[in-house]
Design brief:
two-stranded antiparallel sheet, alpha+beta
């Protein structure tokens, strides 16, 4: 049999090092002709077999992933504890082996996994807590953009306001959650006991201004206006929705307050008119 190329050797070792259940299981899943090649690539010695020596690197790979995901989900870690978190990430990586060259994305599927994981039986709010933490990470890493100011809107005419479309900050995330997990997250950030999340629908916006990420629970009207903003709908659509919800008399003032709040928070970065 011809000697494998460097690229072939690298791919072979990578398959075994990243095998979800370890090198031995990875070898067992290979045809015998392939698994036998390990002895040609990695030498055994009196202390360890080739598979055991390669397992050292496989374990290092797993713990590097574990450490990275731990940094991304400090709230989940605080809520379940070190041992349960270790077991959770073991289960997670079996279902979602890392497929991106950057560790930044290693934990991106954890909220979905937690919705089906046995830990959710005791803490059904864990998936929402993970979703909040991932949104915070996404917001922190989003592109920068100059913040829109109220002074830039002063030249708009009444006709312009009917068609104006605002651009949201690239960092803006809108979450529709089933639990009030922001309170749990705040407690874990202070180093307090995580406690439990209160049930109930909870819409939340997450965004970054300068180098700080903020999260804020929001009322249904603001949530709906945010959806319209992110869908690229004009300002008039916000007003029409508010009128249908609150009536014409209250709609204008309500939408104006929302717009002022967004400008003050730095959620808007630009606008276009017809």
């Amino acid at each position: 049999m011809p000697q494998p190329t460097l690229a072939e050797t690298q791919r072979y070792l990578w398959r075994l090092i990243t095998a979800p259940e370890g090198v031995a299981a990875g070898l067992a899943a290979m045809p015998e002709s392939e698994s036998a090649r390990l002895g040609e690539i990695v030498a055994s010695d009196a202390r360890r077999s080739a598979a055991e020596r390669l397992d050292v690197y496989a374990n290092m790979y797993f713990f590097r992933l574990l450490d990275s995901i731990r940094e991304d989900y400090p709230g989940v870690l605080a809520a379940v504890g070190e041992d349960e978190f270790h077991n959770l990430i073991t289960d997670y990586l079996l279902a979602h082996p890392s497929s991106h060259f950057s560790l930044r994305y290693a934990g991106r599927h954890l909220p979905d996994v937690l919705r089906r994981h046995h830990l959710a039986a005791e803490r059904p709010w864990l998936a929402d807590l993970a979703a909040l933490e991932w949104a915070i990470l996404e917001s922190f890493d989003a592109a920068d953009a100059p913040v829109l100011t109220a002074a830039e809107l002063e030249p708009l005419s009444a006709d312009d306001w009917a068609e104006v479309r605002f651009r949201a900050s690239p960092s803006l995330q809108l979450l529709d959650l089933e639990w009030k997990v922001d309170e749990v997250w705040d407690r874990t950030q202070r180093g307090d006991d995580a406690g439990a999340a209160a049930p109930g629908p909870s819409a939340m916006r997450v965004w970054r201004r300068d180098l700080r990420v903020y999260h804020q629970p929001i009322e249904p009207l603001e949530r709906d206006c945010l959806r319209l903003l992110l869908a690229g709908e004009p300002f008039a659509a916000w007003c029409e929705h508010a009128a249908a919800s609150l009536g014409d008399e209250q709609a204008g003032a309500a939408v104006a307050r929302i717009l002022q709040t967004w400008l003050a928070a730095g959620l808007l970065v630009g606008f276009e008119t017809a």
